[in-house]
Design brief:
The structure holds two protein chains of two kinds. Chain A is an all-beta fold. Chain A has strands at about 5, 10-15, 20-25, 30-35, 45-50, 55, 65-70, 75-80, 90-95, 105-110, 110-115. In chain B, strands 2, 5, 6, 10, 11 and 12 form a six-stranded mixed sheet that branches. Chain B is mainly beta.
């Protein structure tokens, strides 16, 4: 069964450093998302991406964040200058064409646990 | 803005018994989707069940079923014949045509052997 994959599974970085979190969505999916979950809290939407551009972003997704689909398979989240409060689990998700029965469902990757020191 | 509320931070159930997790949401939209996701200790988000708002019939997936009350904006999850592997955080989530998911705070389910 196809699945969303994410690398790395864990990342430790120093405050102020740049990090890039990588995701490989399910191959025929068209919509891509990043969410984050601070430990003990609920999952929060960061950004959605479709047709090579951001379709929606939350207030959390400020100028320190960017997303990119550098090739036909990867979808990345970059944090330019990490802060302590960026420590969280970051989930990538993807969904298919709206016309398909499963298109409304977002499938999540296993997450990247980011720790900023 | 849409909101999702899970009023039970923790629930426990005896193995093989049935448990119901509550979820309410607030929206002014008429067309949307509701989901339950399971998050085990590994913290991966696993889809449990999906409900389209335009469907009156409650969704079922094996031991998992929902009670969808559109007028009351309620979407509860029933787990029958609870198993030890069902122990996890359960998140209720709302998705409008705007695509993003809005999650509730989660309910931690413990299964007692």
């Amino acid at each position: 069964e196809p699945e969303v994959t994410q690398t790395p599974s864990h990342q430790v970085t120093q405050m102020g450093q740049e990090v890039i979190l990588r995701c490989v969505p399910i191959s025929n999916h068209l919509y891509f998302y990043w969410y984050r979950q601070i430990l003990g809290q609920k999952v929060e939407f960061l950004v959605s991406f479709y047709n090579n551009e951001i379709s929606e972003k939350s207030e959390i997704f400020d100028d320190q964040f960017s997303v990119e689909r550098p090739d036909g398979s990867n979808f990345t989240l970059k944090i330019r200058s990490t802060k302590l409060e960026d420590s969280a689990m970051y989930f990538c998700a993807s969904s298919g064409s709206w016309d398909l029965a499963g298109g409304k469902t977002q499938y999540f990757g296993p997450g990247t646990r980011l720790l900023v020191l | 803005a849409q909101t999702v509320t899970q009023s039970q931070p923790e629930m426990s159930v005896q193995e093989a018994e049935t448990v119901t997790l509550s979820c309410t949401y607030d929206t002014s939209e008429s067309d949307y989707y509701l989901f339950w996701y399971k998050q085990p200790p590994s913290r991966q988000m696993i889809l449990v069940i999906r409900q389209e708002a335009y469907k009156q019939q409650n969704a079922t997936e094996n031991r998992f079923s929902v009670n969808f009350q559109k007028a009351a904006k309620s979407f509860s999850l029933k787990i029958s014949d609870s198993q030890l592997g069902d122990a996890a955080m359960y998140f209720c989530a709302y998705r409008s045509l705007a695509q993003k998911l809005v999650f509730g705070q989660g309910t931690r389910l413990t299964i007692n052997p």
